[in-house]
Amino acid sequence: MEGDIAQMGQFIGAGLAAIGSGAAAIGVGHVAGNFLSGALRNPSAAGGQTATLFIGIAFAEALGIFSFLVALLLMFAV
Amino acid sequence: MGKIFFWIMVALAVVSGFLFAPEHAGLVIHPMDQFEVKPLFGKGEIGTFTITNVTMWMALSVVATIALLVLSTSKRATIPSRAQSIAELAYGFVYKMVEDVAGKDAIKFFPYIMTLFMFIVTANFLGLIPASFTTTSHIAVTAVLAMLVFLTVTIVGFVKNGAGFLGLFWVSSAPLPLRPILAIIELISYFVRPVSHSIRLAGNVMAGHAVLKVFAGFAAASAIIAPVSIFAITAVYALELLVAFIQAYVFTILTCVYLKDALHPSH
To answer: I want to staple B139 with a disulfide (CB 3.0 to 4.6 A). Which of B27, B34, B88, B202 is the partner?
Structure first.
């Protein structure tokens, strides 16, 4: 597609897709905050769970990365 | 001492902001220009075997990895040098990760996972050198790494467990009417794995570098905000150092998780 309207649509779409990054930020903050509140209750068990923490963060982040990808595709590939 | 250093840096940032800021306003540095793939020699078209800057920086990260792991440990000093300690730390770190996350019987995949981790972490750190090229910011590079992991895990799963590997998709703890629906969801999430695996690494690295360049563009645009912008670059750069390591760690640990699924598919 060509033209100003199509370009406007691209930019608006990319901006809307960026909302997904904020949603992923909420998710990652939720994971990390819950880990911390659990870890401060029982600090001796926290050390062994850092791998689980990072796996949780990675899965929460994955969908935000998809929205980032959609924004990139709209900006540079469409 | 620290305070003096801090104020010297402040003065330098302010002065450099006024010295190097060009007169014309606007975003003069496009944040995506740094990811352009160019042929290393000449200006021809890029074919399959053209040596580009991606090739060069990937080769450099392989050379740096070999130098770190082979040369530094070749002396085998009882009191390790700094390079030897880093090599030993990296080995122990990845070994423990494979053992803890993927289990004892995944140890025979340790060389592969160690290679993955060292390549990604070196490529990420080399990409943080100013004016260098970040190979892991390209989905083409990370997609190959992720597809290799995906194929390895799938083949290992079927070789080890035969058709029992399909039990990964059949959630036996769920109620029976729900299981076909869950199986479809599990199947989709299984095939999305290489996509999210590769885009997570490339997206994080690319976004971080683009943010650096956006702030650099602000610094170039106006002399008044240049000092603030240069400080922001410093802060984001520190964050990027952290991200470079954490993303390599996440890539490796997810490989371990997938490997554990392949070795023990019982859901």
So the answer is: B202
